[in-house]
Amino acid sequence: MHKIMKKVLLMAAVLCLSLMSAFPALALGAVTEIVDDTDYVNSGPGAEQAPEEEPAQAQEVSLGMFTVTGYCGCDRCSSGNNLTYSGTVPTPNHTISADLTHYPIGTKLRIGDVVYTVEDKGSSVKGNVVDIFYASHEEALAKGTYKAEVFLVQK
Ligand SMILES: [Zn+2]
After folding, report:
1. What is the mean pLDDT of residues 114-130?
2. How far apart are CA 149 and CA 128, in angstroms?
3. What's the mean pLDDT in 119-139?
């Protein structure tokens, strides 16, 4: 029984070989197919891919020199508004007021070591003027008005 099986297999193999030598195009076709398969695997979803570039570090662009002023949540500074123009709770070292036509809500601006987020606007905050939120009126006054280079932080 086994012997017969072997014979059959052997015959099939011989037949296959003779077919391939009789029709070289057939053999070539088979080889091409294998190559195509390899290509497919290499470009498929499971294929190894060149590692993607590290997400770029935050890029900064200098916006030039600004007049930097300070404000707080008091009636004099904020006319009794408890929230920023964008509806957030103003936070020191975070909230900054800017000219929204140039720097819309959510824009990140770095001044010195602090990256602020534009969340507010002000009637006197136009063009190259930014207004930093401080926790108290005293601090806002103490920091005063000064000139500083402002950087736009891009994601
Ligand atoms: Zn104030």
Report:
1. 97
2. 10
3. 97
* The two structure tokens encoding residue 89: 């709770």
Q: What is the 140 CA–ligand 1 centroid distance (Å)? A: 7
What is the rounded average pLDDT of the residues 145-154?
97
Q: Give alpha helix (H) positions in 1-145.
A: 2-22, 24-43, 75-78, 137-143
Can you give the pLDDT at residue 155? 76
Average pLDDT score over residue span 34-50:
56
Query: Residue 146: which residues within 8 A CB-CB, separation 6 or more?
Result: 67, 68
Distance 150 CA to ligand 1 centre (A): 23
The confidence score (pLDDT) of residue 80 equals: 81
**Phi/psi of residue 35, nearest 5 degrees:** -60, -45
Single pTM value for the model: 0.64
* DSSP summary character for residue 13: H
Distance 142 CA to ligand 1 centre (A): 11
Fold classification of 59-154 is Barwin-like endoglucanases (2.40.40)
Buried b / exposed e over 121-149, threshold 16 CB at 10 Å, is bbeebeeebbbbbbeebeebeeeeeeeee
